């Protein structure tokens, strides 16, 4: 349980850790995370996210991924786009450690990590400061009484719409059919977003620049093909 800048308590239902870390991950976490972790001032004006990156090698845009899991998607995008700054939000420390290993092994300089509830960071960023946002395979919370725990709600979409620049893209993916219907309905009927699909393949197949992940491949092998949603700020 954490609080945002308004003092309102925000509950994060993500698991912080499930088991002990392997030595490689523990070492990377200790050595890398202090260098790339975002530390917010206790108060002050809204923050320009480009300020989190090296001023000697400024980034031309900032992309944000919420709940990056083990960081495979985020890491590959960062490698493919060295002139873009990437912010990854993930409260699950095992996933954070996995991304830290990838950052170290690939000498990646354009990733910053927020190892906590994404909504806390989002509340502190300047309006219209994010160029692309990703939400991949969020927890479906399948029981009806838990639907209020799903990340995508009207209020969250309001916040995302304020963060994204005009014309920016919001990408989502899930292999859970009920959650897919929820994500589509909530975002499609939100006045700030336009669905970019023009045919079935636009949501059945990933975008051309979408990095493969082990999670996605596992779902396909188990008969759970993902759906891919691309929305744009109007």
Q: Low-confidence stretches at least 5 residues in length (pLDDT < 50)? A: 1-15
* Dominant shape: globular
- What is the typical, i.e. mean, pLDDT? 91
Termini separation (Å)?
34 Å
Q: What's the arrangement of strands in the largest beta sheet?
A: 5-4-3-6-7-9-8
Q: What do these coordinates show?
A:
The protein is α/β, with parallel strands linked by helices and about 230 residues long. The protein has a single domain (about 20-234), classed as Rossmann fold. The protein has helices at about 25-35, 70-80, 95-105, 120, 155-165, 175-190, 200-205, 215-220; strands at about 1-5, 10, 60-65, 85-90, 110-115, 130-135, 165-175, 195, 225-234. The protein starts with a strand and ends with a strand.
Task: Please provide a brief summary of the model.
This protein has eight helices and nine strands. α1 crosses α3. The two termini are about 35 Å apart.
Note the main attributes of this structure.
alpha/beta; 32% helix; 21% strand; 234 residues; Rossmann fold; 9 strands
Helix and strand layout, with pairings?
Elements: E1 2-3, E2 9-10, H1 23-36, E3 61-66, H2 72-80, E4 84-89, H3 93-106, E5 111-114, H4 118-122, E6 130-136, H5 154-163, E7 164-174, H6 177-188, E8 193-195, H7 201-204, H8 214-221, E9 227-233
Parallel strand pairs: 3-4, 3-6, 4-5, 6-7
Antiparallel strand pairs: 1-2, 7-9, 8-9
């Amino acid at each position: 349980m954490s609080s945002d800048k308004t003092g309102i308590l925000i509950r994060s239902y993500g698991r912080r850790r499930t088991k002990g870390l392997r030595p490689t991950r523990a070492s990377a976490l200790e050595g890398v995370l202090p260098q790339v972790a975002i530390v917010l001032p206790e108060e002050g004006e809204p923050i320009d996210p480009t300020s989190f990156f090296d001023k000697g090698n400024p980034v031309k845009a900032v992309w944000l991924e919420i709940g990056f899991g083990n960081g495979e998607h985020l890491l590959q995008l960062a490698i493919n786009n060295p002139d873009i700054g990437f912010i990854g939000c993930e409260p699950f420390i095992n996933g954070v450690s996995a991304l830290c290993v990838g950052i170290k092994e690939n000498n990646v300089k354009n990733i910053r990590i927020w190892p906590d509830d994404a909504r806390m960071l989002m509340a502190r960023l300047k309006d219209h400061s994010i160029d692309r946002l990703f939400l991949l395979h969020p927890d479906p919370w399948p029981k009806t009484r838990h639907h209020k725990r799903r990340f995508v709600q009207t209020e969250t979409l309001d916040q995302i719409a304020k963060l994204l620049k005009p014309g920016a893209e919001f990408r989502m993916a899930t292999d859970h059919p009920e959650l897919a219907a929820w994500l589509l309905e909530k975002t499609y009927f939100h006045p700030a977003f336009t669905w970019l699909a023009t045919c079935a393949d636009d949501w059945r197949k990933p975008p051309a620049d979408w990095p493969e992940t082990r999670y996605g491949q596992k779902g396909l092998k188990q008969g759970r093909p993902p759906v891919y949603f691309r929305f744009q700020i109007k």
